[in-house]
TrEMBL record:
Keywords associated with the record: ANK repeat, Repeat
Residue spans crossing the bilayer: none
SMART domains from the UniProt entry: ANK
ANK repeats, residue ranges: 39-71, 72-104, 105-137
Key word Signal present: no
Nucleotide-binding is among the record's keywords: no
Record-given protein name: Uncharacterized protein
Organism: Biomphalaria glabrata (Bloodfluke planorb)
Gene: 106058581
UniProt cross-references to InterPro entries, sorted A to Z: Ank_repeat_dom-contain_49, Ankyrin_rpt, Ankyrin_rpt-contain_sf
SUPFAM superfamilies registered for this protein in UniProt: Ankyrin repeat (SSF48403)
Length: 151
């Protein structure tokens, strides 16, 4: 239970942008940066969700895996793309994040960015080789998702 508690605590620091506490916890114990919380998310997932660019950059500087998946197969890149976190998307791609990763519903980063109108993220994903014709579990492409949301 202590490991989960520690993972939950570290993930909370990442989401809230508490970089000082996160650094303190990870000092000398880098493997904690990849521990998953009770929802199967790593600190990088939570930094992406919270838009904590400084935290994401710190975690990426530790050379951690960038494509870890949570319980519903979301990667940090899918989360950052969905939330409109332009700089974090850029940083994840620069560190080798798989632009064609899909979650449990078959949706990619582009599905989410397109449906929410995040043009800069869409352009970044396309420039980095995302499959623009990727079909999700309902048969929808990113273009379908964008059109259905008026984007």
């Amino acid at each position: 239970m202590a490991a989960t508690s520690t993972a939950d605590e570290i993930c909370k620091y990442a989401y809230e942008g508490n970089l000082a506490s996160l650094r303190f916890k990870l000092d000398g114990n880098k493997e904690l940066a990849t521990k998953k919380d009770t929802s199967g998310r790593t600190p990088l997932h939570w930094a992406a969700s919270g838009g904590r660019t400084d935290v994401a950059e710190y975690l990426l500087s530790l050379d951690i895996p960038v494509d870890e998946r949570d319980e519903t197969q979301w990667t940090p890149l899918i989360i950052a793309s969905s939330a409109g976190r332009v700089q974090i998307v850029h940083d994840l791609i620069a560190c080798g994040a798989q632009v064609n990763a899909v979650n449990s519903t078959g949706q990619s980063s582009l599905h989410y960015a397109a449906s929410k109108g995040w043009m800069e993220i869409c352009e970044m994903l396309i420039k980095n080789g995302v499959d623009i014709d990727c079909v999700d579990s309902l048969g929808h492409t990113p273009l379908h998702r964008a059109a259905s949301k008026g984007n």
